[in-house]
Amino acid sequence: MTDAAELLARTKELLAAHPPASTDRTDFLKARFDAGLAWVHYPKGLGGLGAPRTLQAVVDAELTAAGAPDNDPRRIGIGLGMAAPTILKYGSDELKQRFLRPLWVGEEVWCQLFSEPGAGSDLAALGTRAVRDGDDWTVNGQKVWTSSAHVARWAILIARTDPDLPKHRGITYFICDMSDPGVEVRPLRQITGEAEFNEVFLTDVRIPDAHRLGEIGEGWKVAQTTLMNERVSIGGSRIPREGGMIGPIAQTWRERPDLRTHDLHQRLLTLWVDAEVARLAGERLRQQLAAGQPGPEGSGMKLAFARLNQEISGLEVELRGEEGLLYDDWTMRRPELVDFTGRDAGYRYLRSKGNSIEGGTSEVLLNIVAERVLGLPSEPRNDKDVAWKDLAR
What we know:
It contains eleven helices and eight strands. It has helices at 4-17, 25-34, 56-65, 77-90, 93-105, 219-235, 246-255, 262-289, 297-320, 345-351, 362-373, and strands at 110-113, 129-133, 136-143, 154-160, 171-177, 183-188, 197-208, 212-213. Helix 2 (25-34) packs antiparallel against helix 5 (93-105) and helix 6 packs parallel to helix 9. The longest helix is centred in the C-terminal third of the chain and has 28 residues, at 262-289. It starts with a helix and ends in a 20-residue tail after the last helix.
């Protein structure tokens, strides 16, 4: 079993062989991956050493202190948080070797082709079709709310392969080449003025069967791995005290005593405590992850993340008064990364409105917490045993 001392020694060897100050950034990241220090809990040869997940902090702290570059996780978050764990669990050896290294290094950006105009909250009702054609599949359909599709090289995709089965059972999971000529990406301009989201049209897109993850018809099971990891990556990321949305408003409170009132003070204290509780709960969740796969607890973290972001950003706008109504730039742009806390207070307030939709709506996550964490009875569902093609649409 690899321990902390061995990881520290390996990290020092990496730094000695590839000094960050004189080594090309990409070359350093590749060397880190090859040394097993990318994801220490992944298997050897795939960026890890089979070490306990909790020991990643030992490597990260040493590299940060040495000024080593990171892989810009905000830009490649979908690949790191969703595609990688799914490929690791369900991909063939060839797929793991092909995709994990360039994914982690950041040479290839990923996006997620799940939601559809008629299948958002009810994802299992999706209608994008994949039809077998020899060693390939031909895919036709439309996806929506696809973050980073405009810069993505690859996508994780679920499509219906058997419309005669109930909606949860006739789905298959694929890796889609976003450079295929049948893939069309159109921007969706948001309330912030940006278009980080997109709609994606798939017309006779060819996907080799070798790019299938999991068995045919078992895409829903594979997708659960992606979704659980997605909610953890959104709501349970490691942040320092006063990190995230609470940081800017706390700084404004300290620097602008002229804006303070007793009522705002009490509300800020309540939200500060809530944010700290959520942060510590996230630490506990990551310790649980070290022992296995993420569970429904990640849905609770994502719920708290959305609620806190919306309440804190709303209070920040109120605290700033007339200044809070200002907005820096409405120019249409297509950012390469998602930044929940960047720019000004107005941006944070508007962008946070999407937090209760993306990564699973809060309403769906409340059901997951109720049924899978609290053990409450499931909602009545009369479509579970009905063929997808017979469902009303």
